[in-house]
Amino acid sequence: MATGQTAELEAALSRVIRLADEHATALDAPMRSMAASAWVGGGAPAFSKALNEQRTAMQRAFQEAAEQIAARIRQAGGQAPQLPPLSTSVNVMTAARTGFSGMDVAAMEGLVTSLQRAGQELPEAGHRLSAELSALCLPASSGKEVAGAGEWSQEQVRDLRRRLSMIQQEHDSGLASKAMAGFGLFGGYAPDPGGVSKLTAAAGNGDAAALKALVALQNTGKDATLANRLNAWWAQLGKAAQDRLIKQSPQLVGSLNGLPSATRDQANRTYLAAEKTWLNSEIARLSGQLSDHSPPELMLRKAKIEELKLKQRQLESIEKALARGGKNGLPETYLLQVELGGLGKTAISFGNPDKADNIVAYVPGTGTKLETFAGDAKRASDMWARAHTFDPDKKIASIAWLGYAAPQWGDAGLTHTPGTLGDARAGAPLLASFADGLHAAHQAASNTRFTVLGHSYGSTVTGVAAQMRPQSFADQLIFVGSPGVTAMHAKDLGVGSVWVGEAPNDPVGDIGSLGRINQAPDPVGAVPALISGVLSGEGPFGSDPSRSEFRANRFYVPDSGDSLLGFKGHSSYWGKDERSWDQRSTSLWNIGRLINGQYDELIPFPELSPQLVPSSAAAPSTVPQSKLIEEPTSQRSPFSRPAGE
């Protein structure tokens, strides 16, 4: 080859190396942002992998182009210079976790800005590289690789600008919520079990079947990320689409864990009002035609009327519970779930959990049903009143959660009884999913305390649910009157702070030490099982949580003075005042302090021992009776306890 041709190749090689030197690092800055954990959780690992693949392919393209020209120089008899390395080294984020750690919005803005710069530079660089290669009759595929990395960057920027703008409007603190961090950005890169992306896209267009499928999927409790996905999806819909869905399918929208509590309240109250009107008219219509039917038809029609009247009573029970809010110092109530018929389901919060500093969700036990839910709502409001009195500067939300079918006494058959785990295993996924929703909808804050309090069989449901979400279910568990939580030790629950309270005259709290008598083959076999349980502490639902071997923190609950046979001690944890919250209740005092994390203010056991209080805080040695009496803040209205516990 002529010397002039060799010089031309060398000049072209020099231009390609210079082009690579200017643009091969275009995606390094976004990679460094990801490596520095500007955003962690959800689809972050998958996006980081895609970003690194684009960066590697682009740098390899520059390298291959230079090597092609160098090979042509050698073929022409020239001396090709030693090529400099055209790739760079950046630590790649490889975290595969699916939890959520939040996001530094300012850092993400920097990432998007650097992506935008790469999107502007790389296509032009790719075209110039293709031109250099084509002029030398070499394949131009390397140039297309470089330009492709730029086009990919442009696609990310268009979507991210819109999403970041929305996040900045909702989170002025500079830290996005965990849900938005996980799925509000790069949502397409996040794992998609159950085909959630297709379902949310269809639901956003008004497909009620897709909404039903989402509710069914969340009720399995299998996807711990679903509530976060739904939270991000809802935020991105826009108000017009949100209002349309609430109008078309209020109960389904109100059932979706992860949506804002105010949205769920609006949707569920819309449904409740429409259902109330329909029930009244339908009962009147059916009652007015009873004489027009044959005996078999008449029997069916009367059964239908009774079914509707049950729903009517359940609806009235919800209305009565909601009416407690906004009066005599109590905060407004939020209706987070409604399901009429059968035993019924609901969830009512005193205070907005999305904005609360301290949140407690109360899970009731055996005998609870929606028709008599007013007493359970009062317990939630009592806990709010006591916790608020102890820390009035904190925002508190207290939730009564009847989101599962609680076992009933005497009429439930062999598998739907308080003596088996069937109802706990069926209810735990529902509670785990509900907790997912509270985490997802909560506005970003660093010092929020989320407590789940399980009473009686509700503690068993809580124990199973906690083990479904280790390290992410709650910050604290409180068990009162617990027959067992399906764990042998507190650490098995995967929650850092576990507290147990048991009244000395509560017979249910001792079931945990009765052995596995429900599994004995016959009455004779129950005796060894009973002896074994007393010795080992292993009962039908795991170890007795009140035993020292369980290694939970214990708080003082005094004897209520009631007979063991009357079971009143089992309902004494909220005091005895059925009109207002019981200011003299030692147990309620301690529950309120626990909700706030005020461990050093607990009323101690009469005889202290080191294992009875947390090592980080000593309980006060004495508490004057006068200290228990304060001005009530809750509503004074007559209520009777629920027929169950």
Automatic annotation (TrEMBL):
Residues 344-514 form the DUF1023 domain. Residues 612-625 have a biased composition (Polar residues). Transmembrane segments: none annotated. It holds the Pfam family Abhydrolase_8. Residues 610-645 are annotated as: Disordered. This is DUF1023 domain-containing protein.
